[in-house]
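for the recovery benchmark. tokens below, seq after
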């Protein structure tokens, strides 16, 4: 199906109104400064910031590591099952109102187990929020457990073991945290075990790291999706493979801007990735830290790069195709997308 013609002045409203899936967001990155302070007070955790404003002013990042240092500090207020529930509930109710129909949510258990929080506390809180969001808002949500790549493969194995009693609560595994110096090859054996267990496989690669890390994620980890992947444009053979195999890239424009992966959004390569036939999608990564949720990402990158309604159509379709959701759900969302475009064309 081809999208109906949309007047350019209708495009911003359509970007917000169209159904879409979010496939790359870290739930700990949805902790707004206000919630960090509220949870710190509730749990008696001391913060090195005097106020919400002072914390927000610290969100000036020069690269991925400068962000991660603050992000892990923010997560230190999460202690009880209720905290994990409240965080995920806040994210899901917010994005349901942004017409996200499906979310695949990353979580970083090692950030919490290292502080003495049990795997059960983390997973039960998040999973209950996902179930409640489906009942309350009609949004489907699933969890993806991420291994921290700055830690060892042995620690990743221990994390997997600790999570297996809760296997039915997560659909896959990913790889995140400090990329450069921690190639996918470091985790080949633990991902082989995850594949044996029937888990879906994704990995951050080519955010700041080289195209070789994307090859490794595909060939050594068996990644079904690449998170970020924007450095692929520097390798023509890799671009050809990603296009031919329709390996999805979960791109995060505002994150890339804030972490200075691109000098500004006008120079972001999302449009080139789409025009080269790649299955790129738009996502928020860590919305509380990078200046916006999914609709903010769509609005900003469209305004800066001059993409059109045809790109919006493709991005929404890609988000469904790239998801791990059942084919029947994807077909329903495609129908809803067609209806949203028809309404925008008639307006
Ligand atoms: N953008 C990102 N890259 C790697 N690890 C992350 N953890 C949270 N956000 C991340
Ligand atoms: Zn990420």
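predicted aa per position
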């Amino acid at each position: 199906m081809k999208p109906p013609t949309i007047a350019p002045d209708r495009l911003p409203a359509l970007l917000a109104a169209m159904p879409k899936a979010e496939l790359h967001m870290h739930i700990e990155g949805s902790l707004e400064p206000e919630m960090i302070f509220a949870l710190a007070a509730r749990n008696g955790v001391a913060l090195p910031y005097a106020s919400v404003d002072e914390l927000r002013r610290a969100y000036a990042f020069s690269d991925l590591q400068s962000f991660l240092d603050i992000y892990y500090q923010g997560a230190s207020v999460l202690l009880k099952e209720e905290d994990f529930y409240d965080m995920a509930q806040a994210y899901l109710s917010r994005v349901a109102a942004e017409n996200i129909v499906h979310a695949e949510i990353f979580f970083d258990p090692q950030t919490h187990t290292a502080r003495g929080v049990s795997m059960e506390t983390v997973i039960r809180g998040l999973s209950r929020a996902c179930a409640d969001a489906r009942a309350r808002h009609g949004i489907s949500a699933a969890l993806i457990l991420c291994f921290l790549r700055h830690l060892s493969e042995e620690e990743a194995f221990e994390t997997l073991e600790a999570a297996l009693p809760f296997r039915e609560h997560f659909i896959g595994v990913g790889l995140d945290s400090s990329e450069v110096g921690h190639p996918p090859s470091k985790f080949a054996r633990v991902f082989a075990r995850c594949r044996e267990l029937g888990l879906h496989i994704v990995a951050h690669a080519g955010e700041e790291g080289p195209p070789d890390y994307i090859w490794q994620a595909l060939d050594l980890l068996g990644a079904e999706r690449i998170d970020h992947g924007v450095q692929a444009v520097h390798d023509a053979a890799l671009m050809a493979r990603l296009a031919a195999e329709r390996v999805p890239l979960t791109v995060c424009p505002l994150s890339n801007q804030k972490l200075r992966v691109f000098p500004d959004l006008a120079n972001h390569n999302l449009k080139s990735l789409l025009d080269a036939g790649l299955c790129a999608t738009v996502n928020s990564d860590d919305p509380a830290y990078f200046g916006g949720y999914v609709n903010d990402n769509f609005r900003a990158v469209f305004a800066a790069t001059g993409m059109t309604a045809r790109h919006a159509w493709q991005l929404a379709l890609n988000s469904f195709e790239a998801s791990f959701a059942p084919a029947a759900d994807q077909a329903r969302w495609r129908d809803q997308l067609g209806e949203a475009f028809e309404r925008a064309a008639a307006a």
